[in-house]
Sequence to fold (363 residues):
Amino acid sequence: MKDEGRERHHRRLSRALPRTMLPEVSMIPFSILDLSPIGRGATAADALHRSLELAQQAERLGYRRFWLAEHHNMPGIASAATSVVIGYVAGGTRTIRVGSGGVMLPNHSPLVIAEQFGTLASLYPGRIDLGLGRAPGSDQITARALRRDLNSSADQFPQDVLELQGYFVPASPAARIHAVPGEGLDVPIWLLGSSLFSAHLAATLGLPFAFASHFAPDAMMQALAIYRGSFEPSRQLDRPCAMLGVNVFAADTDAEARRQFTSLQQAFLNLRRGSPGQVPPPIDDIRSCASPAELAGVDHALSCSAVGAPETVERQLAEFIEKTQPDELMVTGLFFDHAARLRSIEITAEVRDRLNKERHAFP
Fold:
């Protein structure tokens, strides 16, 4: 009976949600994923102000979205209260879409998220995205501190997604629970994942899918094949829409880009060693602080990265696009040096324009 009820709810949502028709063009939008990185010696306030500055530059450069991610108990990440930061960034920009990449739904009541994002969509209509993840975004001790049921929250993810969708559609006269604000608002939902589970679910629900290839590349190609091969059209989306994460460290020279990249490599090493901290400054040689085995593991995890001067990044991104055929790229990079990150997204925007010009000329 529960499965039949969910199926009826899914059919009702499919009738109620507005469909996003995807244009038949070869242009690939670029977007930005930000964690509000707290550099060593800086404060969360510094990081949040820099996130806004980054978003404002991204808007000027024509990036489509600016997403922030929910992580908890991480000394180097300031975006834990994700919906609050989204409001801050949306209030300081005018046209760029701002959203979550993502909100970790097992940490929250679906009603609370509907109210939060309904509030954001009411304040910034047509500009808010809601990306949902299934992981806790933290360690198990922190997850317990978030006061969610660890035994069932992840297993309840599909039902929680359906419940959340239900709060955004016009309610029936018999409904006793309403998301205010939220009800009747068009808040696009994305499913995020680094495994095959979310690919299956996004395909079944007819939702856009964002894969975390920037740190978990192993299942990327299989997840894309599953999502594209089993996609069921919905009222939100008429055909598959796959976004892929990629680390981009662009600089004026290959050497400088590789140096900036060491901040992310060090942060990843520290996380794997169980000692996450603030984002470390770049160093000249990453081999000086890690064993060959550690570096091999980090290199594998960060294999979906473009690091170098403009021509190097252009070649690497062209190869990645040719291999994966994404509908959108989500560019990210854990920089210590804020000025270097601003320069990186400027170079990346120039690379984007050249790549899209070539794709448009030779579809």
Summary: Confidence is low (pLDDT under 50) at residues 1-6, 12-25. The two ends are 49 Å apart (CA to CA).
